[in-house]
## 1
Amino acid sequence: MNSLIVRRILRGEVASAARLMRDLDDEIPSARAALRELYARAGRAHIIGITGPPGAGKSTLADRLVEAARKAGKAVGVVAVDPTSPFSGGAVLGDRIRMQRHATDEKVFIRSLAARGSVGGLSRSVFDTVTMLDAMGKDLIILETAGVGQDGVKVAGAAHTVLVVMSPGQGDDVQALKAGILEIGDIYVINKCDHKDSEQLARSLGLALEGAAPRDGWTTPILKTEALSGKGTAELLKVVYEHRRALDGAGAWERRSLNMARSAFMELLETGLRGFINEECEHGAECRKLFGALASRKTDPYSAAKTTLRKLLKKSPPAPLSKRGDNPSFRKGGRRGI
Amino acid sequence: MNKNFCRKNFFRRKAKKIRVLIAKPGLDGHDRGAKVVVRALRDAGMEVIYTGIRQTPEAIAGAAVQEGVDFVGLSCLSGAHNHLFARVVRLLRKKGAANIAVFAGGIIPAADIPGLKKAGIKEIFPPGASTRDITQWVLRTAQ
């Protein structure tokens, strides 16, 4: 029997779902029980990652994909990540502006998330939010990363189909040869294709991708779009569907789903461990002593890290995913931190 | 600085964040003020969603519910505030999100303030209000 909140969410109550997403984002432990129930019901949606540098047109393109998917009668979820300030902890979430025309469409659920210290263009709660939208029966879930540089590859472990969006006028041919986001794309999109330099970008990108062995029965295409006017965006969605068929044909859909489950699990494990380590090193007198020994060159970082790690692993972590969210004094501290 | 920096911002970043949606309802393209407020709230450590200009009350309420915010801040300089602000409050209640506190700013004549408060707007920041007033009010009300 499902709990009340889960029943409400499965009935399609947006306010309940939004509240649970919020609690998961704030890492409130009681929310995780509800997520457990929803997790069992998820796993059907096609998750499309959109990544690329800031200002390339990711949000506008997401808006167009929503439009095209709605025309085909699909229910759509969007998760859009924007960066958190490392100074104030605040964030401006502005991706939604480009998609606001879908705000009154009941079959579209758009959620903005702040990265909250996560690197690589995602936030930790992205996986939870996607799981929820999936369980709520969205056919397509668009996961838009924060603007990334050359190594924001995390989205590859969070989506079935990865779109890498680029726009002309952002560097010479060598940029296209670099490792990183140029290796994770299943579909490359040159947006703002009305720009005079778009031909050149298409050429150098084509050269960079030339000869790459097909992956999962799929050779990565380069598409041109003009998201602002909608040119090429319906075709883009068609190619996304083609990618899904190719994955299915090559038996790669399950492989990708497995990889995504693994990424979400590893992310959680790392977060838990990092929190544990931070806590120990912030408050542990031993660690402070160790910093002194390091600064005065009595020991070296490798040996110090090795012995500390050994000691930490013997201690039992205060529930790896700590209950900090529930601790009122902590919450108060956070407010003061503002 | 180092230690404080880590403590204040990284270590404690998991504390419950205040989420605010700032929106401009109606036919009014002047959003300089709204953007100043967005920035002030961001600098006070909040997550601020901005939905841009010329929004219908329906779109604003829909976005606020989906985003699970604590506050909706409305800005209107066109004179249609009495109708638009009250409608946003009504729609939020209808959508089961009466817990979201609505505040507002813009060119609001003093005579309209009592009526707006009665309609459910928690606080009005007329011309001359400082960003500090606004952030302090939000922080206080959030507790």
## 2
Amino acid sequence: MSNSISVPTVAQMMANGETPEILFWVGCSGSFDDRAKKITKAIVKLLNKCEVKFAVLGQEESCTGDPAKRAGNEFTFMMQAMQNIQVLDGYQIKKIVTACPHCFNTLKNEYPELGGNYDVIHHTQLLNALIREGRLKIEGGSFKGKKITFHDPCYLGRANEEYEAPRELLQKLDAELVEMKRSKSKGLCCGAGGAQMFKEAEKGDKEVNVERTEDALEVKPNYIATGCPFCNTMMTDGVKFFEKENETAVLDVAEMIANASDL
Amino acid sequence: MNLIFGISMVSIIVFAVLLIFTFSFFGWNVVKVKNNISMGKPLDRSDRKKERLKTMLLVAFGQKKMFQNILPAVLHFFIYAAFVITSTELLEIIVDGLTGSHRFFADSLGFFYVIVISTIELLSVLAFIATIVFLARRNLLKVPRFQMDEMTGWPKLDGNIILYLEILLIVCIFTMNGTDEVLLNRGLSHAHIEGTSFGFAVSSFLGPLIFGGMETDTLVVLERIGWWGHLIMVFGFLNYLPYSKHFHILLAFPNTYFSNLNQKGQFNNLSNVKKEVENMFDPNFDPYVAPPEGEAIAEPERFGAKDVQDLTWKSLMDAYTCTECGRCSSACPANQTGKKLSPRKIMMDTRDRMVEVGDNRRIKGKDYDDGKSLLGDYITQEEVWACTSCNACVQECPVNIDPLSIIVDLRRYLVMEESKVPGELATMLTNIENNGAPWQFSPADRANWINEE
């Protein structure tokens, strides 16, 4: 894997008199969580390879406010939102890509009413667009003939009705894409949404991620593909719970595409 | 002759009284329901009329979402279709009842009448089968979603009562038509038509088979029992609706019309919070300025929902529309893993509390406070915090009910009014406020990943 990546901040770009084609909204998970950082890097490598003129906000990025809003704290959410909108509008940002469906949903659906209007896409949608434009070519590589199952993130799927973009990408890997018994609009949550990621679950007889990982392991996949850093954590924990780490790996769709492109 | 005239006069009067009572009582209940729904907060759903109409036609009229699950969908469709078609017969019942005529439209509509009644009969047979299967699914097969904790007592009985009434109604219809077929064959029916049979699809065979051997006097009595039973069932059912989960047969239509047409992931932004935060960002805002003269200082609005009046009218309409099918709860990740949360219970609690508050207001005055609230006395904090906001419940509801928006409004009240938030979430919120991330990382380290190996 090559390690040299180029990640300009919007401030740097502007100082050079350039404007980014698209802003990469990294998100808190993608910035701070060790596992999610790998997904961030995979996306950066793909963007570098396709020579996409992107930039990040760097230290100027701040939580979108999604977990605060889902937890019922509108004040914290709106403070975050208005502060972020000031920064984004200050740089005249028009287009945003993010690898986190929670950031994606909040930026796309909840910011407009507060004055923040951007064209927001999920990284799987961007990668598809790059393929369509001929800027990105992928071959199966190490995934050829392997069995992959995709876990729909609630905030990409049901919440925003995007079921196909990640699947279209996975189909390009010459692998066998197998659906779980519950998928797309019927997909089961990983258990992290609605701010559950940050707290212990209420008393019950099972963890949600265990229930969902059972769905995934039922189809005996080599890979569980995800499109959300939180789903990734939950499914990884689930696979560990069943001690199946040696048979089944949990990877983000972007990591698989980068991997197949030898990045 | 005078006796018969007398009986027929009495029956017309009895019918007229019954008819007036039925529709007055139903009208009174409709007003009550409307008032209860109006207790909710305003919400504008007057936009995108074409899209709304389309949603209503597809989801309510066409039962689009029901057909995700084919067996109950088909059975449910039989009962639905039978109900819609049978309602047209109500017109003849009313004309016959008020004028003392018998099968008023039989003569004038001719063959078309036979088609209408035959359709009713065929659908009634299908509905009969469906009802039996539904009773079996509830009571013998014990389909899991009908066995959850909230489905005991009245809700369980309510579900069964409707099915039993359905069977009684169908029995009455076939008694009425079957006996009349036999009577006509004996030249004794009061219908003004020629011939020896009406030609109804089912009772022209079933009638002679069951009633063929009976005395004419018995048939006349049975025919009347069928007719009166049929109409009492229909009138009774109409007035049972507002007290039952079965109200969905009417409210499904407005409820789907007023559906949330935005993406499901989009939560509404609280306008009162927005105003306060905007003021904080506005350097020219003076918090100490007096309101313009003549304008009263408005009482600060509650953040989120503690009781039913804090919910939007749409949430309250949702509660009346819920028919307790439980598709939401069986799709809920929290419910499936043994947590207390059941989206169906959220809707049932909201309805029960709404009716309670509505009755209190009507009987004890608008400002009466019974000291109870939806949150606490009906829905516990444990339920509210178990939700993952995954939208599976919203997705599954065949009549576009949104339990999630109620859960979020309750969370908002807990967090913003009472500061009752699970400890770890309080830490998460503090982190966002201080560091701009839900974890305790310095904002200065946000871009460190770029240079890390």
